[in-house]
Amino acid sequence: MPRIDLRSDTVTHPTPAMRRAMADAELGDDVFGDDPTVNALEERAAALLGKEAGLFVASGTMGNLVAQMPTWTGARRRSPAPRATW
Ligand SMILES: Cc1ncc(COP(=O)(O)O)c(C=O)c1O
């Protein structure tokens, strides 16, 4: 299988250098903002995209939920009887 397969992020295989980088990464508790690797990744992503901050999530499903949550909570705050947005 080729190293880069753009059908999905889940079918691309990491190179040996990528595996080494993962194994050697500095670790910490991201809940407390103490993971230097996650902090660096979030800062780099924010800078690349011209955003104030970045947020790393550990799965695609988590990303989908985080993206939807402001819609749900915003709808609740605007009206005591929230209208469905989906
Ligand atoms: C938009 C989207 N949602 C969900 C998933 C599922 O990801 P996971 O198995 O990491 O939750 C993917 C996987 O690539 C995705 O692209």
If you had to describe this structure to a student in words, what would you say it looks like?
This protein has 86 residues and is mainly α. It is 49% helix and 0% strand. The longest helix has 19 residues, at 60-78. The radius of gyration is 18 Å and the shape is globular. It binds pyridoxal-5'-phosphate (PLP). Pyridoxal-5'-phosphate (PLP) is lined by residues 8-10, 59-61, 64.
Range of strand content = under 5%
Largest sheet properties: none
SSE pattern:
HHH
Instruction: Quickly give the structural class.
Output: mainly alpha
Cα(first) to Cα(last) distance is: 39 Å
> Low-confidence parts, pLDDT < 50 over ≥5 residues?
none
Task: Please provide the count of β strands.
Answer: 0
- Kindly provide the radius of gyration, computed on alpha-carbon positions and rounded to a whole number of angstroms: 18 Å
Give the integer mean of the pLDDT values.
84
In DSSP terms (H or I, runs of 4 or more residues), the helix count works out at 3
Q: Give the ligands present.
A: pyridoxal-5'-phosphate
Q: Roughly how much helix do the residues carry, as a percent range?
A: 40-55%
Overall form: globular
Q: What would a concise description of this structure say?
A:
The chain has 86 residues and is mostly helical. The protein has helices at 16-24, 36-49, 60-78. It is globular, with a radius of gyration of 18 Å.
Q: Key terms for this structure?
A:
globular; binds pyridoxal-5'-phosphate; 0% strand; single chain; mainly alpha; 3 helices; 86 residues
